[in-house]
Amino acid sequence: MLLACVMAFAAHAGAPKVSSGDMPPDIFGKDESGDPISLENHRGKVVIVTFWATWCPYCLKELPILENIQNLVGKERIEVIAVNWKEDRDTYRVVKHRLKDLTLTLTRDTSGRIGEAYGVQSIPHMLMIGKDGRVDTVRRGYSEEDLEDIAADLNRLLQAPYVATMPTAPASAGSAR
C-alpha cells in the first residue's frame, strides 16, 4: 500500500507545470460547434482559463462571476475558457444545459489530458494569460479570500499594452549589408 502511494505521488510530481512567463500549450478541446479552441485565436486579449467540476461548489460560484467580468469588460478584451475537468460526458451535458445562458467558452476534459498539460492536479485551478499569449499568473486552490488579488492581477493585465511579437526571420544567404 505504501509503495502504491509513493508511486502515485511520483507520477503527479512529474506532471508538467505551467508557470508565469511560459507559453502555454494550445489545447483546450472543442467548442459547441466542434471547432478547436486555440489560444492563438485570442492573441491580443487577456485569457482566463479555469478548470472546474460540478462537485466543486466554489467553481460553480466562480463561473457566473467570470461571465460577468467578461460581459463588463467585453469579449474583444477578455476571453474566459472554462474547462470541465475529469467528469463524464453525461454529467457535463447536464450542467452545461443548466449553464446554457453563459457566453463564456465551455469545454470538457473527460480524460484529464488537457489538465495534465497545464499541471492541474486539483481544482479550482486558474491561469491568467496576457495579451502576448504568455502565462502571467497561475492560481491553485484559491477561494473567495483571494478575490481582491485576482481582481488586481486582472486589472493589471487589462491595462498592459499589447506588444505583438513577430517571429525572427532567418537571414538569407548572400543578403546585402
Automatic annotation (TrEMBL):
<dbReference type="InterPro" id="IPR017937">
    <property type="entry name" value="Thioredoxin_CS"/>
</dbReference>
<dbReference type="InterPro" id="IPR013766">
    <property type="entry name" value="Thioredoxin_domain"/>
</dbReference>
<dbReference type="InterPro" id="IPR013740">
    <property type="entry name" value="Redoxin"/>
</dbReference>
<dbReference type="InterPro" id="IPR036249">
    <property type="entry name" value="Thioredoxin-like_sf"/>
</dbReference>
<feature type="domain" description="Thioredoxin">
    <location>
        <begin position="18"/>
        <end position="159"/>
    </location>
</feature>
<keyword id="KW-0201">Cytochrome c-type biogenesis</keyword>
<dbReference type="Pfam" id="PF08534">
    <property type="entry name" value="Redoxin"/>
</dbReference>
<dbReference type="InterPro" id="IPR050553">
    <property type="entry name" value="Thioredoxin_ResA/DsbE_sf"/>
</dbReference>
<protein>
    <submittedName>
        <fullName>TlpA disulfide reductase family protein</fullName>
    </submittedName>
</protein>
<keyword id="KW-0676">Redox-active center</keyword>
